[in-house]
Amino acid sequence: MAMYSFKFPRLALVAMALATAVLGVACSSAPARPKPAELPPVASLIGTRLAWSAQVGQVPDQAVPVVAAGQLLVAGSNNTVRALDTGSGKEIWQVRLDAPAATGLGSDGDTTAVVTTRNELVAMAAGKELWRVRLPSRVFSAPLVAGRRVFVLTGERSVLAFDGRTGARLWRQQRAGEPLVLQQPGVLTAVGDTLVVGLSGRLTGLHPLNGSVRWEVPVAMSRGTNEVERLVDLVAPFSRQGASLCVRAYSAAVGCVDAERGILAWTKPAQGTTGVHGDESLVFGSEADGTLRAWRRASGEVAWSTDRLKWRQLSAPLALGRVVAFGESNGTVHLVSREDGREMTRLSTDGSAIVGAPLLAGQSLVVQTRNGGIFAWQPQ
C-alpha cells in the first residue's frame, strides 16, 4: 500500500517587529506523542475507485488547492499554477510565476489569485497573468476572490481589498489583536454581502466596498499569563451552510455564528489544531489527540465521539454525503460514517504529505500531496 504523511500543525508563531513585518517563531517544546494502536483490517463498507490521477511536481505545504467552475487549481513545481479539469485531471492552462506560492489559491472561476514567497499578490486568468502587487507584510491565508475584488488577510491582521481587474488597492482595514498570530491559514470568506474574516479569536463582518466593521463575534477568548498562552486564532478550513458559519479557534474552541446577523449561536471548548467541515446538521473535526468528534450544528451538543484513531495525526475533514474523510500522517485517508464515526474504508496515495484538507471536485474526492500527486476517487 502506498503511503503518505501529514505534517502535523505546529505552533508557528509570528511576532510583529514592525507594522509591516512579522517574524516566525516555532514552538519546539511539544512532548512526544504516544504511539497509536494498530488498526484492524480495512472494513471496506463502501466501494471507491481511482477516477484519475495527475502529477504537478513538488509543492509547498501552504499551497492549498481550490475548486472553482469545474477546475481544480493547484500550485506545482517550477513555480507554476495549473488549472485541471475536475472530471478528467487534464490540464486546461498554466501560469509560470517567478517565485513559489506562499499561500493557497483563491478563485471565483474567472480570476485566480495567490501570494508568492516574494510577498506579491498575483492575479491570473485563462493562462495569463493579469497583475501583481507587493503586499505590506507576510500572508498565510489564501486570497479570497469575490465580487470582482481580491481580498487578502495579512499576518499583521490587516485586511486589504484590490480591484480584480487592475490590482488597484481599494481599502485597508487594520484591527487590533494579540501580538502573536499562527503561521497557519485563517478564515476569510464571503456570506451574502458581508466579508467575514477571523481576527484573533473573533469572527468579524466587514463591508466589502469600504472595509467598515458591521459586527464582531468572539468564538474564543484570550487567556493565560504570557503572549504564547494568550494566543488564540481562527484556522481554516471552516464549515458554512447558508448563514451558519462554524469555525475552530486553535487549541481552544469550536463555534458557530449566524454570519448574516452577526450573532453567536454557540461555542464549545475543544483542543484541535486543524479546521472543521460539516453539513446541514453536523460539524466534524479531530482533536489534538486524534479523537474524532461531531457537534450538532444547531446547538453545539456533541453528537458522537470516537477514539478509534487516537494519537494519529489527522488532517482537517471533508464531509461528503454519508462519509467524512480524514487524512493521516502515515499515508492513509480514512472514510468514516457521518452517523457515528465508524470506519467505512481507507485510501492511499504516493507516500508524501497531503497539502490542505481533502476536497470535493465535481463528483470526486480529491487530495494533493507534497510530492505533487493529485488523486481523485469516486464511489462505485
- What integer value in Å does the Rg equal? 20 Å
Name of the CATH homologous superfamily: YVTN repeat-like/Quinoprotein amine dehydrogenase
Q: Could you name the ranges where pLDDT drops below 50 across 5 or more consecutive residues?
A: 1-29
- Head-to-tail CA distance between termini: 20 Å
Shape: globular
Question: What is the total domain count?
Answer: 1
CATH architecture: 7 Propeller
CATH class, anyone?
A: Mainly Beta
What kind of assembly state do the chains in view correspond to? Answer: single chain
- Main beta-sheet annotation: 4 strands, antiparallel
Average the pLDDT over all residues and give the rounded result: 88
| Strand arrangement in the largest pleated sheet | 3-35-34-33
| Count of separate DSSP helical elements | 1
Structural class: mainly beta
Percent of residues in helices: under 10%
Index terms:
four-stranded antiparallel sheet, 1% helix, 35 strands, mainly beta, globular, 380 residues, Methylamine Dehydrogenase, Chain H
Explain the overall architecture:
- This protein has a single domain (12-27, 40-379), classed as 7 Propeller (Methylamine Dehydrogenase, Chain H), CATH 2.130.10.10.
- 1% of the residues lie in helices and 48% in strands.
- The strands form nine sheets. Strands 3-35-34-33 form a four-stranded antiparallel β-sheet, with no helix packed on it.
- The chain is built from one helix and 35 strands.
- The longest helix has 4 residues, at 227-230.
- The protein has one helix at 227-230; strands at residues 12-18, 21-26, 48-55, 66-68, 71-76, 80-85, 91-96, 106-107, 112-115, 120-125, 128-134, 144-146, 149-153, 158-163, 169-174, 180-182, 188-191, 194-199, 202-206, 213-218, 234-241, 244-249, 253-258, 263-269, 277-278, 282-286, 292-296, 302-306, 318-320, 323-327, 332-337, 343-348, 359-361, 364-368, 373-379.
- The chain is mostly beta strands.
- A hairpin with a 4-residue loop joins β9 (112-115) and β10 (120-125).
- It is globular and about 55 Å long.
